[in-house]
Amino acid sequence: MAIKVPLIATGPVVEAAFISRTNQLLIEVQLNGKLVRAHMADRGRLTDLLVPNARVLLAPRDEIGRKTAFQVVGAYEGDELVSLDTQMPNRLVSAALSSGALPQFARYTKVHREVVVGENRFDFKLGEGLSTCYLEVKSSTLVVQRIARFPDAPTDRGRRHLEQLGMMARNGQRCAVVFIIQRHRVRALVPNDEVDPAFGRALRFALSNGVEVYAYLCPLTIEGLHLGAPVPVFAHLESVPRDL
Question: Which residues lie below 8 Å from residue 201, measured CB to CB, with a gap of 6+?
């Protein structure tokens, strides 16, 4: 079953040239000879993608109260379009859950969004009563030598999520994490210990306590974000087989 979520736009997407990043949430681009500002949801460093004159894809947005007329959808690295919309992975997983496209969660008929447990908010709670699963979705874009590395910037929020899921799983609660790799050519995913060793420790803690961890290739095209094939997750970069 093909699962896809479209880009959120109020008109045709347009291509522009990246100029600078004003702050985490705002970039400046050259569009039709004019300097234009666009909002960006991805707060990662993105130094591999946002380079001078990089081709970026913008979606027009005309909601009341917006300060910018465009939302950054993605950026090209060579001929590959990489998603920079951090909301799309959750939309994609929601569509996959509704369609039964994730067989490991197919038995759950009820899906709750944005569920608070303690001091953390998790993306999904599946099921009711004694048969439930807490599910967190993470968006991955950084790829080095065909290996996805998460995160590309320190994430205290992500670390806290993994630590609490690990403690919940240790007490018998089913918990899972799904990494949506918004790239085309990836053979595995590992924690990025060089950038955020605390997250790496949290992921290994979660795995050791029974948290299920999955990763999927989810390439972006002009038509939207697609749910692709699963790829393995390894606790350490050194664990990835050379012939994988």
Answer: none
- The average pLDDT across 5-16 equals 85
Q: Judge contact between 9 and 58, C-beta under 8 A.
A: no
Residue ending a domain, choose from 82, 100, 119: 82
Task: Determine the Cα–Cα distance for residues 147 and 227; give it in Å rounded to an integer.
Answer: 18
Name the pLDDT band for 1 (thresholds 50, 70, 90).
low
Residue 103, CB-side half-sphere exposure with 13 Å CA sphere: 3
Is pLDDT of 64 > 70? no
The whole-model pTM stands at 0.90
* pLDDT band per the 50, 70, 90 thresholds, residue 222: confident
Domain presence at residue 154: yes
Judged against a pLDDT cut of 70, whether residue 85 lies above it is answered with yes
List % helix, strand, coil for the chain (3-state, nearest 5): 20, 40, 40
Q: Which domain holds residue 230?
A: 88-239
Residue 2 buriedness (CB in 10 A; 0-12 / 13-18 / 19+): exposed
Before 151, cis peptide (omega within 30)? yes
Which one, of 189, 241, 216, lies nearest residue 102 by Cα?
216
DSSP per position, 47-100: TTT--TT-EEEEEE---TT-S-SEEEEEEEETTEEEE--TTHHHHHHHHHHHHT
Q: How far apart are CA 76 and CA 239, in angstroms?
A: 30
Q: Is 103 helix (H, G, I), strand (E, B) or coil?
A: helix
Q: How far apart are CA 39 and CA 139, in angstroms?
A: 18
